[in-house]
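Lecture notes, unit on protein representations.

Consider one protein chain, 60 amino acids long.
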Amino acid sequence: MTFDSHPHAVTLKIWDRATLDHTLDEAIAHVSSKANAPREHVRVTRSGPDTFTVSPAEDI
């Protein structure tokens, strides 16, 4: 897994599918905390093969 962080966004490349759910759940919690936003206002976007970006939704 590789990790890239921006002020309120996290981009992850996750190779191990067994850890996918847990890793994304942790990333959602991290972004939610940093952006001071409820978890339901955090989105996960698949931005490439095995690459996910977790960021606050634009409508908050």
